[in-house]
């Protein structure tokens, strides 16, 4: 089992610090593809962590077909949620960089360790690994872990670049 990216017991995760409305000022995903329901921790002056969540519900669009009779939250949506969280975090930490859509450039070291079944709260913990501006485009990578009830259910390194 991998080491946790953060000691969540040391963080106050009792209230949402950024809402969907806050994220929509930065992110372009809407509707079924807005996959972060809130951010519980993002404190650039204190640390390099971001913690968001997705409330996995029994009435989500994918539950009927993935997998019939036993819905399992698709891994690709966990990675997409991570990318959205990383994009929002990046722009909060770098207000000097103009807002632009961030596209995937790479997904590495991805492991799905347990199924995510509704109803549950999927916590997504991210930590920036690298960031830079190259030829006027911001580029970055984050290490992510997804947790349900304190158990790591997936991990991935996700990279992105401004379009």
Can you describe this structure?
With 163 residues, the chain is mainly beta. It is 15% helix and 39% strand. The chain contains two helices and six strands. It has a six-stranded antiparallel β-sheet with strand order 1-2-4-5-6-3, covered by helices on one side. A hairpin with a 2-residue loop joins strand 4 and strand 5. It is globular, with a radius of gyration of 15 Å. The model has no long low-confidence stretch (mean pLDDT 94).
Keywords:
2 helices; mainly beta; 163 residues; six-stranded antiparallel sheet; single chain; 15% helix
Q: Main β-sheet, in a few words?
A: 6 strands, antiparallel
Would you tell me the overall average pLDDT? 94
Give the CA-CA distance, first to last residue: 36 Å
Uncertain stretches of 5 or more adjacent residues: none
The beta-strand count equals: 6
The percentage helix is 10-25%
Strand fraction: 35-45%
Structural class: mainly beta
Number of helices: 2
Task: Evaluate the radius of gyration.
Answer: 15 Å
Strand arrangement within the widest β-sheet reads: 1-2-4-5-6-3
The dominant shape is globular
H/E element string? Answer: HEEHEEEE
